[in-house]
Design goal:
The chain is an all-alpha fold. It is 74% helix and 1% strand. The chain has one domain: Farnesyl Diphosphate Synthase. It contains 16 helices and 2 strands. The chain has a two-stranded antiparallel sheet. α3 crosses α8, α7 runs antiparallel to α8 and α15 runs antiparallel to α16. The radius of gyration is 20 Å and the shape is globular.
Length: 322
């Protein structure tokens, strides 16, 4: 098995920069822009690790690993348009640089390329990969719609929120691991367990992401702190705080939904997150889900040495500050 750094090097050797050389440049320049922004590359690495965990050859999984990274970045391009976001990972978003129409079309072609790379594997894997990937893509789009619907509501429950982030974020992490497991030759039960590991890790990841969007440092996070608050996103922080709030605090939350002064809005909502105990609850929930993920990992029928790289990756995700 390769180390995490070795897998990263293997991936970067094949997919480093400017992988989309085709004409017209007006279509592919925006694609290269988003793909070349430095990122965590968590999803492709999880796919490669899932493959190697079951004794597979990571080189056979490189194209699908790139597919999930292209697909993930496609969703970011379209999400940024819907959120009217100016910055992504510290640099201008695609639509900010190239315009909304270019952003939409760049995302469209990225989705097509994701399928091209996904199916560029040994033929026996293609039906399973397509089935898993299609299910995941549909759930991600459903999750995005739920996220947008929640912006208009102030009565979102914790259960609704968790289902939304399960679809919008977590299913792709589970998908990556299961895709890798398929190529690695895992049986049905182990595929299920590694998917559950990714799913719970993804929930923990997203709650931590929500937390960092509000209480992180802009230089580390790579975007403006408080963006979710400005967009009235129903994050775990917001949902928990509102459900914990007394009548006066709920009235303040409702009033702040339409507050035009962005700095005031961010400051006062953060104060409410603190006062209602939501800040600590978010950290506690993230840790709880992380531990549930590790329980699924432990049940997989491979040796402890094979599980170690994923356990270490999960720990890094859980402890991150960006």
């Amino acid at each position: 098995m390769h180390s995490l750094s070795a897998l990263n090097a293997l991936y970067n050797e094949k997919f480093s920069v400017d992988n989309f050389h085709q004409n017209p440049t007006g279509l592919y320049k925006p694609v290269n822009h988003i793909m070349n922004i430095p990122g965590k590359r968590i999803r492709p690495l999880l796919l490669l690790m899932g493959c190697e965990m079951f004794g597979g050859d990571a080189k056979q999984a490189l194209n699908p690993s790139f597919a999930v990274e292209v697909f993930h970045n496609f969703t970011l391009v379209h999400d940024d348009i819907m959120d009217n976001a100016d910055i992504r990972r510290g640099v201008p978003t695609v639509h900010k640089l190239y315009g909304t129409n270019a952003g939409i079309l760049a995302g469209d072609v990225m989705l097509a390329f994701a399928y091209r790379y996904l199916t560029d594997v040994a033929p026996q894997y293609v039906p399973s990969l397509i089935t898993i990937f299609n299910k995941t893509a549909i759930e991600i789009f459903e999750g995005q719609q739920m996220d947008m619907d929640f912006e208009k509501r102030n009565d979102v429950t914790e259960g609704e929120y968790l289902k939304m982030i399960e679809f919008k974020t977590s299913v792709l992490l589970g998908c990556c691991l299961q895709l890798g497991a398929v190529i690695g030759g895992a049986g049905a039960e182990d595929q299920k367990l590694i998917y559950e590991f990714g799913l719970k890790l993804g929930l923990s990841f997203q709650i931590k992401d929500d937390y960092l969007d509000t209480f992180g440092e802009a230089e580390k996070v790579g975007k403006r702190i408080g963006g979710d608050i400005i967009q009235n996103k129903k994050t775990y922080l917001y949902v928990t705080a509102f459900n914990n709030a007394n009548a006066a605090q709920k009235a303040q939350f409702t009033s702040l939904l339409t507050e035009a002064d962005e700095e005031k809005k961010i400051k006062e909502v953060k104060q409410l997150f603190e006062a209602t105990g939501a800040r600590q609850q978010a950290l506690d929930k993230s840790d709880e889900l992380y531990n549930v993920a590790l329980q699924s990992l432990q049940k997989i029928s491979v040796g402890e040495e094979n599980k170690k790289p994923l356990a270490e990756m999960a720990q890094k995700i859980n402890n991150r500050e960006f």
